[in-house]
């Protein structure tokens, strides 16, 4: 326990912690904005590959796709506030796990590495 407390007091740890919160927040907000109405998520054709077909089908659900976007924006903002960091991190887990599983299922190159 003493080792962990000493690490938490180091300036580099605090900077890394803040940087990680900022990056995660921006990543979720940007991804969420891409799911808002009238915003195209990807340029992939739905007939060329399964990834394009998946995103086309998700966009066609309408409200559900938009809900995911609004949810990502909300938790992306919440992670920046100390009071809501833990709640936001807990809410990010199912989203991140889902992205990871979809990436594997659709054989997206590179994405599983990013989400792990």
Automatic annotation (TrEMBL):
The lineage of its organism: Bacteria, Pseudomonadati, Bacteroidota, Flavobacteriia, Flavobacteriales. It comes from Polaribacter porphyrae. The keyword Transmembrane helix applies. The chain crosses the membrane at residues 12-33, 63-81, 88-106. This is DoxX family protein. Keywords: Membrane, Transmembrane, Transmembrane helix. The keyword Transmembrane helix applies.
């Amino acid at each position: 326990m003493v080792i962990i407390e000493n690490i938490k007091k180091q300036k580099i740890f605090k900077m890394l912690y803040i940087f990680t919160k900022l990056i995660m927040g921006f990543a979720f907000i940007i991804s969420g904005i891409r799911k808002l109405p009238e915003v195209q998520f990807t340029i992939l054709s739905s007939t060329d590959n399964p990834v394009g077909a998946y995103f086309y089908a998700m966009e066609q659900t309408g409200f559900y796709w938009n809900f995911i976007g609004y949810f990502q924006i909300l938790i992306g903002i919440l992670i920046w506030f100390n009071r809501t960091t833990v709640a936001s991190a807990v809410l990010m887990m199912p989203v991140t796990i889902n992205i990871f599983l979809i990436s594997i299922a659709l054989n997206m190159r590179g994405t599983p590495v990013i989400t792990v």
